[in-house]
Design a protein that fits this description.
79% of the residues lie in helices and 0% in strands. It is an all-alpha fold.
């Protein structure tokens, strides 16, 4: 098939998935530039790093007596999940230290962006290499866009979620969370690759991915719901301090805040952004390590000063 058709088929679904996942983060969306930065890492940096890792592991295989078919299976089922998940996930070890990495949803979104970028490039190479006829090309586009690339998205998002829990946890065993997240990401990758590598298992692989996609969507929804619980709890404290009206709390902790009419439209967006950030910064202050506490304290003070100023324009 023509290169342009394969490029469009590789880029368009991943871009659509990325936008959908980004929009599901309703409370404090990450900057698009940061999302694209992670997507590009997945599309190029992780691909290159993953290839290097695979080559090193393949050299290890070459000194052992395995048949050519065994080499292929070991490469696909064991080495690919190991090398590729590390290559995708290593970038999140930098992201987790960013102050823009605020909560569980952020870990999922950033991890998804990397996984989708990786899936896009991998899909493009598959479409060019194995799409000999239109029928085979179309089959690859459907299966890889709906399942294989989505597997990369979910696997890296899982690692991102575990990093988020690690960042804002004070549990004594928190240090095992990054390793647990990476192992689960590798397991997801391993199970999918194993299911499509043996005759008769493909159907079970599709069922596994459908179940995984459902769990993934539900996890994002639950994460956003938990954020609303945090917003309500933290803003109740602020209303008692007189920072904002009590009758605003229920609105701000739900999708009602996106409706018009409950507050002056000239200040609604600015007000929502300020109160949501105040709620999250308070929560992060309570759960952060000493390294970031000064920053969160300054942020809380800033928004407590800013919010009454914003409201005063409505009351004027």
């Amino acid at each position: 098939m023509p290169i342009l058709s394969s490029l469009i088929a590789a880029v368009a679904p991943m871009a659509l998935y990325l936008i959908i996942i980004w929009k599901m983060d309703k409370n404090e969306r990450e900057p698009l530039a940061m999302i694209l930065f992670h997507f590009i890492w997945g599309a190029f940096g992780a691909i290159i790093l993953g290839l290097i890792g695979s080559v090193i592991l393949t050299l290890f295989l070459s000194v052992h007596l395995f048949s050519e078919s065994q080499h292929g299976l070991i490469q696909t089922i064991i080495f690919a999940p190991f090398a590729e998940e590390i290559a995708k996930g290593v970038f999140l070890l930098w992201t987790v230290n960013s102050r823009k990495f605020d909560n569980l949803t952020d870990g999922i979104v950033y991890g998804s962006a990397i996984g989708l970028g990786f899936g896009m490039t991998e899909n493009f190479t598959y479409f060019l290499s194995y799409g000999d006829t239109f029928a085979s090309w179309l089959y690859l586009v459907i299966v890889r866009s709906l399942f294989s690339a989505v597997m990369h998205c979910i696997a890296t998002a899982t690692f991102g979620a575990f990093l988020a829990i690690f960042k804002f946890s004070k549990h004594p065993l928190r240090n095992i969370l990054p390793f647990a997240g990476m192992l689960i990401a590798m397991l997801i990758h391993f199970l999918w690759n194993a299911s499509v590598s043996f005759d008769g298992n493909y159907f079970y692989g599709l069922l596994f991915m459908i179940l995984l996609i459902i769990i993934f969507i539900m996890t994002i929804k639950l994460s956003v719901h938990y954020e609303n619980v945090i917003i309500k709890s933290e803003l109740n404290e602020e209303s008692e301090l007189g920072i904002l009206p009590q009758n605003h709390v229920m609105i701000l902790a739900s999708n009602l805040r996106f409706r018009k009419g409950w507050i002056d439209e000239e200040i609604r967006t600015k007000y929502i952004n300020a109160v949501v950030k105040l709620a999250f910064r308070k929560y992060q202050l309570k759960n952060s390590t000493n390294k970031n506490q000064n920053f969160y304290e300054e942020q809380v003070s800033l928004y407590r000063y800013t919010i009454p100023k914003i409201l005063s324009k409505e009351l004027a």
